[in-house]
């Protein structure tokens, strides 16, 4: 706003940037943007965010704009917006916001790892080098923020896929400590326990997975595998029944249930299921029929 557009007798309240004292200035002085502060006796800039018109007959009124008394509110809102903007802008580099900085950097590495991981999971044959890159990104994310649950979980899944089952379980233990309601954390820990031969303890994790996600057919299927390996054929058959009720078009389910019945002495029921598996297109069904149903 230029001084020629103001009334010469208009006065304004401004605040000295140096000592924060309030000063009344004429319109022409306001336009200059600087003044000698009588409090600190220095030639300083003042903040116009605190500018307040003292006289009713001011330049804004001359332009036909309604007078408002909420300049202090605008000042507070402006400061908050500026603070938030600077916080987000410097989230990756400023030591002034270490918490945001840490979270921001961790999330960047997590996203980079997730992009690689997801692209590989959508391919028929994951590239080992790409999975190594994904793992490296997840490790960086966890190094920066040890409580990044998603990064910990994905890191554990990649480790399990690479055969590092004990290291994977260590990460899964941390995930479950931080957040107790993630079904995949229990599922992958159960699968790791199966791989190292700890079948009895895998069952508890499968149970927890199914408790949290009753429709997780993978968890039910693998729990049936664990039970079958422990010769709990009745328990394995019960799990297969649940899968068949949920999805009656999975040939493996019938073959699996058929083998449970054969081991329980129910040869006819078992062979009928093997025939059903063959009808649904399971290649191994012929071999099983030849071995058990001649």
Low-confidence stretches: 1-5, 49-69, 89-97
- As for the CATH topology of the largest domain, it is Serine Threonine Protein Phosphatase 5, Tetratricopeptide repeat
The tally of helices reads 14
CATH H level, superfamily name of the largest domain: Tetratricopeptide repeat domain
Largest sheet: 4 strands, antiparallel
CATH class of the largest domain: Mainly Alpha
Summed up, the domain count is 2
The helicity comes to: 55-70%
Write down the overall geometry: rod-shaped
N-to-C series of helices and strands: EEHEEHHHHHHHHHHHHH
The helix-and-strand class reads alpha+beta
Provide the residue-averaged pLDDT.
81
Q: What is the CA–CA distance across the termini?
A: 99 Å
Strand arrangement in the largest pleated sheet: 2-1-4-3
What is the second-level CATH architecture of the largest domain? Alpha Horseshoe
Using DSSP, what is the number of strands? 4
User: Over all CA atoms, what is the radius of gyration?
Assistant: 35 Å
Q: Proportion of β residues? A: 5-15%
Describe, in plain words, how this protein is organized in 3D.
This protein folds into 2 domains: 3-89, no CATH class; 98-292, Serine Threonine Protein Phosphatase 5, Tetratricopeptide repeat (Alpha Horseshoe), CATH 1.25.40.10. The chain is 63% helix and 9% strand. The chain is built from 14 helices and 4 strands. It has helices at residues 27-32, 59-62, 71-89, 98-121, 128-144, 149-161, 165-178, 183-195, 199-212, 217-229, 233-246, 251-263, 267-279, 285-292, and strands spanning 11-16, 22-26, 34-37, 42-53. Strands 2-1-4-3 form a 4-stranded antiparallel beta sheet. β1 (11-16) and β2 (22-26) form a beta hairpin. The chain is rod-shaped. Mean pLDDT is 81; it is low at 1-5, 49-69 and 89-97.
């Amino acid at each position: 706003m230029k001084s020629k557009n103001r009334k010469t007798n208009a006065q304004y309240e401004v605040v000295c940037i140096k000592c924060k004292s309030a000063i009344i200035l004429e319109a022409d002085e306001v336009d200059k943007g600087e003044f000698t502060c009588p409090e600190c006796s220095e030639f300083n800039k003042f903040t116009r965010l605190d500018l307040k018109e003292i006289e009713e007959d001011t330049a804004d009124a001359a332009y036909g704009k309604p007078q408002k008394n909420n300049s202090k509110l605008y000042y507070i809102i402006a400061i908050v917006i500026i603070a938030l903007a600077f916080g987000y802008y410097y989230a990756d580099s400023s030591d002034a916001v270490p918490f945001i900085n840490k979270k921001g950097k961790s999330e960047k590495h997590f996203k980079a790892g997730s992009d690689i991981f997801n692209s590989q999971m959508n391919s028929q044959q994951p590239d080992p080098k790409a999975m190594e890159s994904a793992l490296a990104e997840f490790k960086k994310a966890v190094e920066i923020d040890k409580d990044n649950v998603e990064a910990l979980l994905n890191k554990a899944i990649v480790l399990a896929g690479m055969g590092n089952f004990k290291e994977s379980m260590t990460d899964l233990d941390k995930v479950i400590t931080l957040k107790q309601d993630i079904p995949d954390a229990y599922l992958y820990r159960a699968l790791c326990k199966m791989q190292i031969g700890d079948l009895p303890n895998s069952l508890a994790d499968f149970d927890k997975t199914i408790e949290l996600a009753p429709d997780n057919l993978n968890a039910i299927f693998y729990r049936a595998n664990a039970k079958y390996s422990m010769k709990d054929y009745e328990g394995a058959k019960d799990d297969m029944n649940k899968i068949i009720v949920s999805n009656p078009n999975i040939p493996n389910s019938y073959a699996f249930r058929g083998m449970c019945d054969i081991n329980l002495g129910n040869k006819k029921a078992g062979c009928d299921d093997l025939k059903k598996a063959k009808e649904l297109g399971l290649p191994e069904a012929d071999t099983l029929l030849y071995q058990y149903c001649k």
